[in-house]
Amino acid sequence: QVQLVESGGGLAQPGGSLRLSCAASGFTFSSYAMSWARQAPGKGLEWVSGIYSDGSDTYYADSVKGRFTISRDNAKNTVYLQMNSLKPEDTALYYCARGSYYDLNYWGQGTQVTVSS
After folding, report:
1. What distances in angstroms separate CA 101 from CA 16, 97, 105, one per listed residue?
2. 84 in Cβ contact with 67 (< 8 Å)
3. What is the pLDDT of residue 101?
4. What is the 3-state secondary structure (H, E, C) of the chain?
5. What is the pLDDT of residue 87?
6. 68 to each of 1, 11, 30, 88, 105, how far by Cα in Å?
7. 8 and 93 in contact (C-beta within 8 Å)?
8. Where does residue 94 rank: exposed (0-12), middle (13-18), buried (19+ CB within 10 A)?
9. Smallest Cα–Cα separation from 114: which of 96, 92, 94?
10. What is the C-alpha to C-alpha distance for residues 112 and 82, in angstroms, rounded to an integer?
């Protein structure tokens, strides 16, 4: 079955960096767009970034544009989210999801990112 397992979350200081990974299995990874989304405490789910199946195009929410970079390695069935210049408002549970922002159909369990001094 489809499995998405996130890792790489943790505590970072404002201005710091973290790199999230999502290992996928149970489907043909290279055939699907992938996305990252997040949910901050007390807030709704926010789509953060997406990448085409072949990595040729990437998309970002305005809130992270210029600071976050999504990438993928289809040989390793893994999608990444490089997060730089982190802000306290980036604190959230980050989810990896299969699909584009309008068609997210499988989700991982999430990895917590906390940005605090």
Report:
1. 27, 9, 10
2. yes
3. 87
4. CCEEEEECCEEECCCCCEEEEEEEECCCHHHCCEEEEEECCCCCEEEEEEECCCCCCEEECCCCCCCEEEEEECCCCEEEEEECCCCHHHCEEEEEEECCCCCCCEECCCEEEEECC
5. 97
6. 30, 17, 22, 14, 23
7. no
8. buried
9. 92
10. 14
Look at the block and give the residue holding tokens 């043909």.
28
- Positions of the chain with pLDDT under 70: none
Q: What are phi and psi of 89, to 5 degrees?
A: -75, -5
Q: Which residues pair with 81 in a beta bridge?
A: 20, 70
